[in-house]
Amino acid sequence: MAINPHNRKPLRVLTALAAVILGLYGLLFAAATWGSAQATPKLGLDLEGGTQMILKPVLVGTAKVSSQQLNQARDIITQRVDANGIAGAEVTTRSGQDIVVTMPGVPDKATEDAIRKSSQMRFRAVLVAQPVQPPAATPTPSGTATGGATPTTTPTSGGSATTSATTKPKSALPGAFVQATTPPPTPPGSATKTTTPAPTAPAAKPKNPSDIAWVTPELTKELQDLDCSNPDALDKVVDDPAKPLVTCNDTGTEKYILGPVEVRGDQIKDAVAGYQPLSNGQPSTVVEIRLSFNSSGTKAFGDVTSRLVNLPDPRNRFAVTLDSKVLTAPVAQAAILDGNASITGNFTMNSARDLANQLKFGALPMSFSLQTRDQISPTLGGEQLRYGLIAGIIGFILVFGYSLLQYRALGFVTVLSIVIAGLLTYVAITLLGWSHNFRLDMAGITGLIVAIGVTADSFIVYFERIRDEVREGRPLRAAVDTGWRRARRTILAADGVNFLAAVVLYLLASSNVRGFAFTLGLTTIIDLLIVVMFTHPLVALLSGTKFFGGGHRWSGLDPERLGAKTVRYAGRGRVAVPRPAVQRTATSDGSVL
Amino acid sequence: MTSFATIGNELYTGKRSVDFVGRYKQWYLVSAVFVLLAAIGLVWHGLNLSLEFRGGSEFRVPGVSAGSYEAEAKDAVGSVTAAGAPEVTKIGTDTVRVQTEKLTDAQAEQVKTALAKDLGVPENTISASFVGPSWGASVSAKALQALAVFLALVSIVMAIYFRTWKMAVAGLVALLHDLFITVGIYALAGFEVSPATMIGFLTILGYSLYDTVVVFDKVRENTTEALGGGRVTYAQAANLAVNQTLVRSINTTVVALLPIAAILGIGFAFIGPGTLLDLALALFVGIAVGAYSSIFIATPLFVHLRAHEPAIVDLDKKARRYQERHGGVVSSSDVAPVHHEKDAQEEAEQAAGQGQPERVGARSGAEGAPVRETHRYAQSGPRNQPRRAPKSRR
What we know:
A: alpha+beta; Alpha-Beta Plaits; five-stranded antiparallel β-sheet; 15 helices; elongated; B: 66% helix
């Protein structure tokens, strides 16, 4: 059967829409089968149950948090959450000032504290170092002697770090602390006094932080028991700045007993990663991290390095710890008195940059204050979801009933359109949950239910327009075309305003109802898509049928009911002139040849 | 039976008409009273701010069957902290909400345990939330910021779309009117205002504008044609537009309100206070007020704003003269006796291209309105017959 040319375009558009929907569902199916997607939308905290904490960074003084610092803080918190063995937790930044931690279940007090505590960066002297796994790799760095590592360079301009004759460490682990600028490397007298004999009685009071007397048999035992491959191993570690610390490095390849804290992270002024310059100023291939300390840090660091320089390995090493874990433990190769140090080691540029960032932002004693904490039990969440869905279904039925009452058979078009819109929304939300981790929360559900009405609104605007045109006396097919042209403009403007509202809300509203704004915007777009690609083509097709085109009483487009005021061509030269309400029969007053 | 459709027809043709524009004083007065009431409510009652704004701790205990839950809950909280009496409310069928002053973490844990013991529910079903007092303030600040940005953007969009800033102004006034009255209703009724409610208020803006845009679109169409025809005054054309879109406004409003009503019903009966109910309530009130204002406030205000433009004054004079001559009943055919040239052309093209037999000859020409309305049948000439070729050619 040949397709009526009038129907060709609507059919094409409908086919395109069907293809889009099938394609999206196909994508979802594929993603669910072969990917990590799930076939239902991801649920938000308030529906699934769990804990959400909104944390605000607290800084000392008037310092402001930059987005870079916030990202750094987020990474640190993510590490902590992971370290606490919580699965499925999410850490995100929001509005450039808050950090949102969402996790299933209810965290215990210790976990929560661990997440909220400030990120502590500390420098401690190494007392004992032990390689963990591969016994083959000698962790002992070469070139530890001061003599070998003495900087042999001339001062360069701008006080930038200059090279030292560091022998490149063979092992993967330790780098070396070297002097960054070139003050005459005078080993101060203080260094000598640190060379106390190592074997002291355990009971004796340690004289300085490098004193081996810190190492009690208990600590040694603790060191032996410490299993660095176990991620929870460090949870029990108590990080008291005044006491020695038994810990691992963050790759889990070496474990240490460290002396008391000597330099704190907030004494670092800056940390940058870069290539170590050669003596001629050209960059070499050795990656280094350049540190500079503030005045108190300079002094403390100078004291430590002066002392360490003359100690035997491994006590000449200096560990940098972040949250009790050793980031790096380089060898001090010279006494650094001007507060400009450089760490070399087996870094790549990327790892050096990461470490420099950690050093720099670890310098900020950033802790987090709790803004809100919500704990939703899964029971309550599930109940809310169920009632939300019931409310949605009731709302849908009400809209259905009202449409039928008002628009008769056209009401079915409304309902069908809403159903198609629902299908699209479902797949969109599920796919967004997979690709962008969008989670549907209670506010989002509200948005979806409210959207039923708003979506139906555009159909009403359209249908009323068609009715207007029918009242003007147009035959239905023309009425649909003209009505559409005019309704389209109105619907575009109205939806545009709604979408604008949604975008502004989404970008600016900083509370837990962001999901509402999101579903509002999404459904507005889908509404527009459905009106253009489904409702209008469908109505255009239907206008060709006898039921609608002929203006059947129950079609909702009956010209007589609508009081069409002008004549209607009734075929064969006859013209129908309906008399409003009074006389329902068509008068045949057409003239024939 | 006077069906909705019939009323729609009569409103459309102008047979039945409500004088929305002419009786502006009445509507303004009604609105003024509402605004005044809202202001009084705001000043006297103030808003009932939720926990999020005051700061504090909240516990939700589901599955409570004990009848004396209130005393039990108060005891449970009292056993941990003496600071202030907790607020205990039952929400839904079996959930008890306990709101307390700000508690420390340890206290909160203790309260949870005590509640679980006293009310006889497992501890892990209890939801606890804590809100710092600065939270609400930051939310309000954000909301105000969003409001300002939205108003600025929307006035630009409207001014561009309608090509007159006066429509934008009228729309915005209606918008602020809605917002103010809605907030006032909240203050008067003592509904709780949570951050979700704030978002609800902001969303009202979008919906209120939806209605206004629909009405203004028709107003613009009618008034443009009136300016070309010169048979009706500007106010009459605008008024007819409101009447013509009345059924549409009612339908869209009802359909938008129905799902929200469903949420409200379910929410009040089963869920209790929360995001869902807060949003829905704000939207329900706001959309209802918004429908009122787009009909009764926005259009009369717009007509007033334009009333003193020379073109409008001209039109009004011309139209009055015309109506004196013709007995002065305004109907839709007076406003739009001619079709847009573009429409007519497109239709003609379509008809020609598809050879549709259904079409009746030509419509009244696009060039200038005819002085007297001719019967459509007569418009194409004395006879609606195909021309015969001259005899010589046959």
